[in-house]
Fold this sequence. Notes:
By secondary structure, chain A is of the alpha/beta class. Chain A is 23% helix and 32% strand.
Amino acid sequence: xxxxxxxxxxxxxxxxxxxxxxxxxxxxxxxxxxxxxxxxxxxxxxxxxxxxxxxxxxxxxxxxxxxxxxxxxxxxxxxxxxxxxxxxxxxxxxxxxxxxxxxxxxxxxxxxxxxxxxxxxxxxxxxxxxxxxxxxxxxxxxxxxxxxxxxxxxxxxxxxxxxxxxxxxxxxxxxxxxxxxxxxxxxxxxxxxxxxxxxxxxxxxxxxxxxxxxxxxxxxxxxxxxxxxxxxxxxxxxxxxxxxxxxxxxxxxxxxxxxxxxxxxxxxxxxxxxxxxxxxxxxxxxxxxxxxxxxxxxxxxxxxxxxxxxxxxxxxxxxxxxxxxxxxxxxxxxxxxxxxxxxxxxxxxxxxxxxxxxxxxxxxxxxxxxxxxxxxxxxxxxxxxxxxxxxxxxxxxxxxxxxxxxxxxxxxxxxxxxxxxxxxxxxxxx
Amino acid sequence: xxxxxxxxxxxxxxxxxxxxxxxxxxxxxxxxxxxxxxxxxxxxxxxxxxxxxxxxxxxxxxxxxxxxxxxxxxxxxxxxxxxxxxxxxxxxxxxxxxxxxxxxxxxxxxxxxxxxxxxxxxxxxxxxxxxxxxxxxxxxxxxxxxxxxxxxxxxxxxxxxxxxxxxxxxxxxxxxxxxxxxxxxxxxxxxxxxxxxxxxxxxxxxxxxxxxxxxxxxxxxxxxxxxxxxxxxxxxxxxxxxxxxxxxxxxxxxxxxxxxxxxxxxxxxxxxxxxxxxxxxxxx
Lengths: 430, 284
């Protein structure tokens, strides 16, 4: 029986909506009302951030916690680190716990890097002696040897983040909580952070990793919990968890629909909607990698635009555009008479990996070069690949095992790539 | 490896039993935070720690000027020693008291980042404020010795060393105990209601004039005198003067009252603070 390092037993947490007592005056007036025997002011609405959450993490396991915004991920972490207390249920944590919740939360700008290492280390639960022995390693990992005696207020945000992560990752806790901290810093540093976390896990640290970055989560956590509206929607292998998360997300979009408010009428054009459909013309918000995508844009022009350019862009969260198609660049100009128009874009095979994407619309008057509309990225598309692909693209691919290197006649062994069935990424054709 | 459980059941018991031990466990944190406060206070400052002396000293000069030069109130004040000595010997413990509490009032709110993100016993914040002010107090005390030497030299004051000096640490302990209790209540109060800081600002001004800091308190048995006698600081600050300047032990009755008052305040402060501390992160 493995040892449970972290355990949630029917944990619920409720928050009061609105502000709590703003001032003493409110307290006094409610107190007076109570003394006078009158009903106290109606209690404010409450909101259940977590409802009956049950899970356990055993020693040496690393578990990802994923879910849409507001699902209760941060609440789980704050309950775990004992910053918040549950309204009901029980939480147990075995051993030393360190939370890497916000890089450099305890930094003081006027202190030098070295002084902040001691301060932040103590905040995270290290003794001064422990910090002294690890000081060089912390500085080296952060790559700040040259700046360690400079006040951190003169640091760049990347240096700040590097120092913060370096300290936290040297705490060597029994349980490490990590919350979205790796979104800062450059790519190389992020890789080193992931590497460091993997090493900690290998050395027996139990990891709870809260993130929006599903790739990152999958690369480090074999297990994951999906939270949705304060409940555990799924718990299991992280691949299945990602699939469950995607499905939950597409459901919520399907329910909400794509009602988008029209742009103001004084503009030359009103965008009604952008429908994303698959090749069978059924309106969808989710699609599998490689499926065809048919985007249909409906808009009304308020003045004639003889040569109209339409551009559609797609990006994943805050990243750069992943797809940008512009009719002008394709030498396609639409005859924009006043009135309602529909423009369709077909992408026969959309080979992007699973994830949540957002589209926007831009239009130009080609003759004047004036941009007419540039909507926010607000048209969602969820692609569910069952948690299989990570990275940006999911291209059609096949696997073949060409046999051990010694076998010279591997090619003759009958691997005909033209007839290999579309393989599961994890399997290998033999 | 210890197993910690926390839930709605038994939270209070855990909280109470942990209170003292967790403070000890987080000693290093206390040292670090105190040291941070001191470092930050005197960073980018030319005079640095000298300010610990300059502040009570300049207050002493102001009050000495007001009460002996601007208006000569020496007769009315009826102080049985050079006024400058009276004022400074009151201002040093007073500054310790008021600076500690001033730090405590805002310590939780100012460290919101830590309170809402990292867990450790929240007592560390008010206690580190007091510890930081204590360092200044010790430095300022040294100057009191210098001042006594000066008045001895001018002949305005005659000081004889006495074993009563050994009682000073007890007085300090009583004052710290009182400050811990009040500091925790203020820190917590200001977290829930920001009015506390404003009220504190006014109250501390008033308290200075009813604590025998720069003006003696009335002892004529009037209603005012009896109300002021409730203030435990009167006999604490008086006790410093008795021990250090006169070389005799303070009057037992008043001092015991202050000690009991301080102990009760500290017990209540610590318990209430502990009980409320799990709500700090959501209410801040």
